[in-house]
Amino acid sequence: MKNSNTLNTEYANVDDLKIAYRKKGNGTPIILANRFRGTLDTWDPLFLDLLSKNNTVITFDYTGVGYSEGELPTDIKEVAGQIVKLADYLKIDKFFVLGWSYGGWVAQYATFINSSRVLKTVIIGSNPIGKNEIPLEPLFIKHALKPINDLEDEIIIFYEPKSEKSRKAAEESRSRIYSNIDISKIPSTKEEFNRYFAAAPLVVEDKENFREKYTTLQTPILVISSDHDISYATENWFPLLKNAPTIQHIILPDSGHAMHFQYPELSAKYINIFLKN
Q1: Cβ atoms 119, 219 nearer than 8 A
Q2: Coil, strand or helix at 100
Q3: What is the CATH number of the domain that holds 189?
Q4: Which of 4, 29, 114, 160 lies 20 to 30 Å from 10, alpha-carbon distance?
Q5: What is the distance between the alpha carbons of residues 236 and 249, in angstroms, rounded to a whole number?
Q6: Model confidence pLDDT, tens digit, residues 26-38
Q7: Containing H/E element for 259?
Q8: How many domains does one find in the chain?
Q9: Which residues form the domain of 242?
Q10: 78: Cβ–Cβ under 8 A, 6 or more apart, which residues?
Q11: In angstroms, what CA-CA distances link 267 with 166, 216, 257?
């Protein structure tokens, strides 16, 4: 069985643009929405392999990112629409959605806009749509916006630098990811960064009032957070949880923004149980 970081890249025609995707596994499809600067190559292959034991795992690059053509939309609703258009291309009616970081916002929009097609949603290392009280830490900006991130940058951005366990997990995950990666595909310019950042004011404004609609949303949601995420503070979920009956919230200890890469087996186990039941 091919490791997830050696799968062939395929292309879907979406709005006359080539959208790069990879697919692995069997079962109900789960479409993964990536983080800020993430590409097909930057998922931890062990995490994907574990998810694919129970589901057909589909990763893709947003337009203008990685191996895909075009430009990244500044309206995050358009980015979320790419999930559904990819599903249409692949002739998938109903599916699960998983989003990490920026992709967590994408996954939420996809869920609210297409509630009849999204069966369940997993949100990793992200925050709810709408205004959140705790902002990202300046340390994230200092390290995340470097054109190329070294191991120490990644430890600060994605892990818990004070923890030896977390540092060791960072090294192991990076080794898995970098065994087959095209670094040139990772967004690295100010112009590309700004297209991601343009989504934030629209998410905070929440014109569609999706944050309030969590009170009546029927779609089951699993949120996985860490105890110290310097970009999307875990605590921002707390005011919402009492009035969002379909949300389950798990916090993984001694970890940071990439808690699912630090704990790939545990994270995949939680996700697989959630999706199955």
Answers
A1: yes
A2: strand
A3: 3.40.50.1820
A4: 114
A5: 12
A6: 999 999 999 999 9
A7: helix 259-262
A8: 1
A9: 4-276
A10: none
A11: 15, 27, 13
* Contact assessment for residue 267 and residue 252, using Cβ atoms and an 8 Å cutoff: yes
Backbone CA torsion sign across 263, 264, 267, 273: negative
Q: What is the pLDDT of residue 60?
A: 98
Q: How far, in Å, are 79, 104, 201, 221, 261 from residue 224 at the CA level?
A: 22, 10, 24, 10, 12
Distance CA 194, CA 245 (A): 35
Cα(211)–Cα(121) distance, rounded to whole angstroms?
15
In this prediction, residue 277 carries a pLDDT of 85
Verdict on whether the full-model pTM lies above 0.85:
yes
Q: Which pair of structure tokens corresponds to residue 73?
A: 């939309």
Q: Which residues pair with 223 in a beta bridge?
A: 123, 249
Over the stretch 189-240, which tens digit does the pLDDT of each residue have? Answer: 999 999 999 999 999 999 999 999 999 999 999 999 999 999 999 999 999 9
110, 83 contact by CB (below 8 A): yes
Q: Which residues of 39-72 are buried (b: 16+ CB within 10 A; e: fewer)?
A: bbbbbbbbbbbbbbebbbbbbbbbbbbbbbebeb
Instruction: Tell me the C-alpha distance between 126 and 27, whole Å.
Output: 26
Whole-angstrom distance, CA of residue 210 vs CA of residue 203: 10
Which H or E run includes 60?
strand 56-60
C-beta separation of 198 from 94 below 8 A: no
Is residue 33 within 8 Å of residue 97, measured between CB atoms? Answer: yes
Query: Who's near 136: CB < 8 A, 6+ residues apart?
Result: 230, 231, 232, 233
235 close to 208: Cβ distance less than 8 angstroms = no
Ranges of beta strands (E only) in 85-193 are 95-100, 118-124
